[in-house]
Amino acid sequence: MGRSPCCDKTGLKKGPWTQEEDIKLTQYIRIHGPGNWKTLPKNAGLQRCGKSCRLRWTNYLRPDIKRGRFSFEEEETIIQLHSVLGNKWSAIAARLPGRTDNEIKNYWNTQIRKKLLQKGIDPVTHAPRLDLSDLSTILSSPQFNLANLLSLRTLVNPDVLRLVSLLASSSSNQEHQEMLLTNHINTMNQSPIQQTQDCYSMHLSPRSSQLLGKVNLIHENDGLYFSNHLVNFSDQTSQENMVPPFSIDNSVTLPSPQYPSQVSENWSFLRSDIENKIPSSQKFNFDSILSIPMSSPSHVNSS
DNA sequence: AAAGTCTGCAACCGCTTTCTT
DNA sequence: CAAGAAAGCGGTTGCAGACTT
Is residue A13 part of a domain? Predict the structure, then answer.
């Protein structure tokens, strides 16, 4: 027993609406008002199914629809609401006068989603994506001097990179993101990183791999936190391309986040995650990290 | 200039929820 | 209260125009 169709589709038109059809629908609704979509097409002289008429009216012809580009404020509102409501487009649309759920959904899928990903934010959870494929986006910004990074022979602590990625992703300011990374890399260059017994291997996503040239990939669970996934990981298929294992260095220099309140939630989320996964001897001194003023980076040693 | 690829968006499809009888 | 109809909703598709090769 199949589902009954919303209407008898035989002889009904599909596809884009013509101006003539729009006029018929608009004039009919102007006189009779919307509603009873099943009988409307016939009464209005349209060869369309009622559902199609309703959609055309609610998404396009309604007089109170605001057309044109979304403003910055609208975009911010959508992001905020989406973080609370998820893909409840109609609920989001209800809070944005003049915008339809379809329009918001399209805008989300084509614009906002991309922007969030570029900032290293997971568009589904709105949490920072801490895998390095996102970091690669930051690294690939035209202003960022990749050559500096590639010339580094320093040991890179993956956890530090993720911390930087976190902070960078929490900022909507491109310059700030670059500064965070540059500060980090400068620090890595200057600090006498000591290799410890415990070594981490790090793999990068294909995108990062392309970018950085000589590193390979681990991509588990669509986003890596500071996790044991990374510990002693090795990829048998690409040993020759692997960078040497990274040392664990608990000395971290990071500037204060630009938006402390925004970042603090992320911190608490991450702290508990990290503290569960990383042995106590390798933990960061989070409080010290957060207390470092941006203008005067210094080293923090939690050991 | 032509062909191929990408992007944005209107419209559709099918499932769920709400309303009516 | 149940069943069927109507409306609502979100995911997906198809197409036109823009962009790239």
Answer: no
Question: In angstroms, how far is the first alpha carbon of chain A from the final one?
Answer: 68
pLDDT in tens, A80-130: 888 888 888 988 888 888 899 899 999 998 889 888 887 778 888 887 765
Helices (H), A2-118: 19-32, 40-44, 50-56, 72-85, 89-94, 101-107, 113-118
Q: How far is the CA of A166 from the C1' of B11 (A)?
A: 39
A126 assigned to some structural domain: no
Q: Are A274 and A302 in contact (CB under 8 A)?
A: no
Q: Is the CB of A4 under 7 A from strand B?
A: no
User: Could you tell me the distance in Å between the CA of residue A51 and the C1' of nucleotide C2?
Assistant: 26
A57 and A76 fall within a common domain: no
Structural domain containing residue A181: 132-301
pTM for the full predicted model = 0.52
Residue from A120, A175, A173, A181 nearest A148 by CA:
A181
Same domain, A145 and A176: yes
> What residues contact residue A142 under an 8 Å CB cut-off, 6+ apart?
none
Burial track A23-33 (b if 16+ CB lie within 10 A, e otherwise): ebbbebbeeee
Distance A89 CA to C16 C1' (A): 25
Q: Which two tokens stand for residue A220?
A: 């588990």
Residues forming a β-bridge with A301: A251
